[in-house]
Design a protein that fits this description.
Two copies of one chain form a homodimer. By secondary structure, the first copy, chain A, is of the alpha/beta class. Chain A folds into two domains: 129 residues, Aspartate Aminotransferase, domain 1 (Alpha-Beta Complex); 238 residues, Aspartate Aminotransferase, domain 2 (3-Layer(aba) Sandwich). In chain A, 42% of the residues lie in helices and 16% in strands. Chain A is built from 14 helices and 15 strands. In chain A, the strands form four sheets. A seven-stranded mixed beta sheet of chain A has the order 4-12-11-10-7-5-6, sandwiched between helices. In chain A, strands 3-14-15-13 form a four-stranded mixed beta sheet, covered by helices on one side. A two-stranded antiparallel sheet of chain A has the order 1-2. In chain A, a hairpin with a 4-residue loop joins strand 1 and strand 2. The longest helix of chain A is centred in the C-terminal third of the chain and has 21 residues. The relative contact order of chain A is 0.16. Chains A and B meet through strand 2, helix 1, helix 2, helix 3 and helix 4 of A and strand 2, helix 1, helix 2, helix 3 and helix 4 of B.
């Protein structure tokens, strides 16, 4: 349906349970709609300082260089690689899903040499493989890995991987796009050097910003580069004149003012709840979904030992058509869930319970709607998912 | 003043008359606050198609590749350079202000060789210098220039520069950040090949998106590259799978959904007014400001023959302190005007009359506030700026 006035679609209400974006609180939407002010306005600079502090607390870091990059998570990823990787550098990329593959692309486009540590999709990164790769490639400068793989719903042992890398004298780049605020991310305690996230997952902001943090060691590496950073926009030496300028900020690019209003509000909401409480909520909501799915005879892809609570990958029940079922959920209930990627396309669904979408009500609605689809398709349903989830909540 | 709840500043109202962002309509702010939906939602894809059509009409082009890059104008600039410039390519950069300098930085970071065509800040690009540079450098692949220099308020003869470049067999990259929707931008009629703009100038959106358009010739050059585009995020071969995917869009990055809601509404407002009417309004509002400033004895930097109506550079009256006066305007009236850049720092102000800020009321408020500052500082004011502006409006 379109608005005849200017052919814009009248957007239907949605319940966002895919791999992101997640539901955004009305408070965050309202904050993002505050009147635009100048990106160099002194009052806006106070807001910028506030956001830096908020991000340090959510990243659990004292890193001075902690701010949101003016672009979505993929830009945060690129900011980490273009600043830390110079032509000829060796970078170990641990790949156990789609986003590890994107990291390899980034290294190659920076002129770096990729050493691959591959694990199967659906499994975590194997620390022993990383140790072996470091032994075989003592020239390695950077170790990169994905903390929470959005393509599979797997969490890898970030503390262990960071410790192994640091012991070998390497810097780490960690993807925390889906993990931040959903499960513990301890940048300082783990000694992660360059970490990027996104706003549209467990922070429940609209997509468009990528919080990053760089350790002093990482910043020293940026300053010691022999070559210029290949991206003018992402060159930390330049961006920091805006985000970290002492005694007044200097113009680099025009920051996305309204998106930052929204991010500030979303981070305030995380702190009001308490980060630990948010982690616990994500775990509880996952438990309810798991109980419901299992009652309905639906199995999870990922072993409980390394399963993300905020990104749940389940096998599509035999007898249900992938696209038709997702379409029915969307049209009938406004529910968005995610398709499988790569080898899992058509085999699994990705169900996000992130941020504002990590609610028992979301779980109940999804289970009820899915149960109806199964019954209508003649798929046997061993028990009530809704009852089991409600009991587990 | 801060909001005790979470230390966020309570942002004061502003009248944005600097070099951007400009005032944003409540309609656009409200559109940006609509509930977030998925970036792959079929309803969102209808909106994406609508935005592509809207942008084609505002750029005056039939170019199939016309869409908003998910980042501010500097990212749009970088998208043009990283896709069209390969290592070893010769690029003529016409520089007559700050943004031409940024273009040179982009070329060098792509491994290209810059041939500089320099004109003084405050003057337009000299077509004869471009002709001479092309004769001296027949190997030139790309000619880059800024249509409307935000640092000085100068418009260059884009039609002429594009024609000269095309006659020499070169592609053109044109910066239309400040020009789009404020003065004529005729992408197809001029034969410009790669054009980027920003949302926070005459389109009066919040900053954060960069509309771009690529001609078929430019796309052919991207497809004929010998090397991979150095930015994964900006590689048009990949981005277009999302923005131009036939029979369904495939995931590349998560688009800034809410910012795109706002852009769609802002573009609808431009079309409701009519693009030609918007150009005429920008000219009228400039005339009022000019009459007022001249009555008050304040001179313009730029010759009327190549003066931008939407970005006015005026000499700071002798006897007024630059920063103190701008601070007084901001604190006393909420008015933001811009400082001079580079050699003009402390010598000129940059007064934006862009998009929603291109209003006679804005002009009257600024002139009244400025006249008061001048009188208080003991600076003689030959005549009433407000009266002259009102008479000219």
């Amino acid at each position: 349906m379109t608005d005849a006035r200017h052919n814009a679609p009248i957007l239907p209400p949605r319940i966002l349970m895919g791999p992101g974006p997640s539901d955004v609180s009305p408070r965050v939407l309202a904050a993002g709609a505050r009147p635009t002010i100048g990106h160099l306005d002194p009052e806006f600079q106070i807001l910028m300082d506030g956001i830096k502090g908020q991000l340090k607390r959510v990243f659990r870091t004292q890193n001075a260089v902690t701010f949101p990059v003016s672009g979505p998570g993929s830009v945060g990823m690129e900011a980490c690689f273009v600043n830390l990787v110079e032509p000829g550098d060796t970078v170990i990329v641990c790949q156990n899903g789609v986003f590890g593959g994107r990291m390899k692309e980034n290294v190659e486009r920076c002129g770096g040499t990729v050493v691959a540590v591959d694990d199967d999709m659906g499994k975590p990164v194997d620390p022993d493989k990383l140790r072996a790769a470091l032994k075989a490639h003592p020239e390695t400068k950077v170790v990169a890995f994905v903390h929470a793989e959005t393509s599979t719903g797997v969490v890898s042992g970030a503390a262990t991987l960071c410790a192994i890398a640091r012991e070998a004298g390497c810097l780490t780049i960690m993807d925390a796009v889906t993990s931040l605020a959903g499960i513990p991310v301890e940048v300082d305690a783990w000694g992660a050097d360059a970490v990027y996230s996104g706003t549209q997952k467990c922070l429940s902001c609209p997509p468009g910003l990528s919080p990053i943090t760089f350790s002093d060691r990482a910043i020293a590496a940026v300053k010691a580069r022999k070559t210029k950073v290949q991206s003018w926009f992402l060159d930390l030496n330049l961006v920091l004149a805006y985000w970290d300028g002492e005694g007044g900020r200097s113009y680099h690019h025009t920051a996305p003012v309204n998106a930052l209003f929204g991010l500030s509000e979303a981070l305030a909401m995380v702190e009001e709840e308490g980060l630990e409480n948010a982690w616990a909520r994500h775990a509880r909501t996952h438990n309810a979904l798991r109980a419901g799915m299992e009652a309905m005879g639906i199995a999870f892809l990922v072993d409980p030992a390394y399963r993300l609570p905020q990104l749940n990958t389940v096998f599509i029940p035999a007898g249900l058509d992938d696209a038709a079922t997702r379409g029915a959920l969307l049209r009938g209930y406004g529910i968005e869930i995610g398709a499988g990627l790569g080898p899992f396309a058509g085999k699994i669904w990705r169900i996000g319970l992130m941020g504002e979408s990590s609610r028992i009500n979301h779980v109940l609605i999804l289970l009820a709607a899915l149960e109806k689809q199964m019954r209508e398709a003649g798929v046997s349903v061993p028990g009530s998912g809704v009852e089991a989830a409600a009991a587990a909540a």
